[in-house]
Amino acid sequence: NGITRPIELEALVGGVAKDPYGHDRVGLMLTSRITRSDFEITFDPTGALIGDQVTVEIDLSLVRQPTGTT
């Protein structure tokens, strides 16, 4: 629909650890709630199962790249 808006994300750090290869790894969970009608999203393929308020969840696992590599 061409509508973009910033959204506020809540971040939860799941932990920092070394993986089996010795690389630093961090887990993050980002959550937000959007209103579909704010983005003019009206399509509902189910006909009744998707509400106007939708929770967005993003799970990330980030690995620090070793220094000196590209």
Describe this structure in words.
This protein is mostly beta strands and 70 residues long. It is built from no helices and three strands. The chain has a three-stranded antiparallel beta sheet with strand order 1-2-3, with no helix packed on it. β1 and β2 form a beta hairpin. It is elongated. The termini are far apart. The model has no long low-confidence stretch (mean pLDDT 88).
What is this entry, summarized?
The protein is mostly beta strands and 70 residues long. 0% of the residues lie in helices and 46% in strands.
Write the layout of secondary structure elements.
Blueprint: E1 10-18, E2 24-35, E3 53-63
Antiparallel strand pairs: 1-2, 2-3
The count of DSSP E runs of length 2 or more, i.e. the number of strands, is: 3
By helix and strand content, what is the structural category? Answer: mainly beta
Rg from C-alpha positions?
A: 18 Å
Uncertain regions spanning at least 5 consecutive residues: none
Number of helices: 0
Give descriptors for this structure.
70 residues, mainly beta, three-stranded antiparallel beta sheet, 3 strands, 0% helix, 46% strand
